[in-house]
Design goal:
Blueprint (H helix, E strand, L loop, with lengths): L1 H42 L4 H24 L15 H36 L13 H31 L2 H7 L5
Length: about 180
């Protein structure tokens, strides 16, 4: 169990560091959005590249923030039975959901997106807008990063829930909690 706990902590650390980084990017995105509004409506100035940069930042925040949201158990859960289950029953549901839903969907999205992203890199795809950003291929790469990091965190969650199933209630609550 020690090795599994170390793997979980390692993946959680990666996810938390990414989240801390993108949380600063969120501030930058808000400031750039504010600047766009001030320039456009206050001075009648607009730059396509600046507007596209907000879209890139939003995509990056959303795609890489998904793994942290999974770690924090912040995804929408519509299940009237789950909330009444014991901790071990919830762990079993989480394992099954991770193995049969989350990971296959991530693998599928990665698989169908790989050629799309690769072609974008191959042709060094640029914005079709005059004055737009010259690297759309980087934005498309966020799709693959989304799959990789969400899958990694999914594996950590599956492992965490396996430990919950194998451990006593007291140990599971204090040793393998998401907050540590």
């Amino acid at each position: 169990m020690g090795f599994i706990a170390q793997v979980i902590r390692f993946i959680d650390t990666i996810t938390e560091r990414i989240f801390k980084t993108i949380s600063w990017l969120l501030l930058v995105m808000v400031l750039v959005s504010f600047l766009i509004v001030v320039l456009r409506y206050g001075f009648n100035i607009g730059w396509i590249a600046m507007q596209e940069s907000v879209l890139y930042m939003h995509g990056f925040i959303f795609m890489l923030g998904a793994a942290y949201t999974l770690k924090a158990d912040g995804h929408v859960r519509v299940d009237i039975f789950y909330q009444k289950f014991s901790q071990k029953q919830q762990a079993l549901v989480n394992i099954l959901g991770g193995v049969f839903l989350l990971l296959p969907v991530c693998i599928f999205i990665f698989y169908i997106s790989f050629d799309y992203v690769q072609m974008s890199w191959h042709i060094s795809e640029q914005s079709p807008e005059a004055g737009g950003l010259p690297f759309i291929y980087i934005s498309k790469t966020f799709i693959l990063l989304f799959c990789i990091f969400l899958s990694l965190q999914g594996v950590a969650e599956i492992m965490r829930n396996i430990l919950v199933l194998l451990s006593s209630e007291h140990t599971a609550n204090h040793t393998f909690s998401k907050g540590e």
